[in-house]
Amino acid sequence: MAATKKSTRGGSTSAKKSAKRTSAKKKSSGRKYSPKAGKSVEREMKAMKSGKLKSGRSGKKVKSRKQAIAIGLSEARRSGAKVPRKKSAA
Q1: Backbone CA torsion sign across 54, 60, 61, 66
Q2: Is there a domain that residue 8 lies in?
């Protein structure tokens, strides 16, 4: 009878240990981008698709999806929306 308890106990502790390892991962707290930032990006994407989005001082048409997103996030930052900081170039 004692041998039976040991075997079941050993199996359950190993299962608990593996569960602890997976739950040790740090969870992110809340949203990274605010809904306001999402609306800004959405607006810029629509402008790009209709061919009305122009880039900075040169005034050339924006054709890249990534560039349209960058412009939208930049405007959201300027208006004070919650947007993560830019990654440094270095």
Answers
A1: negative
A2: no
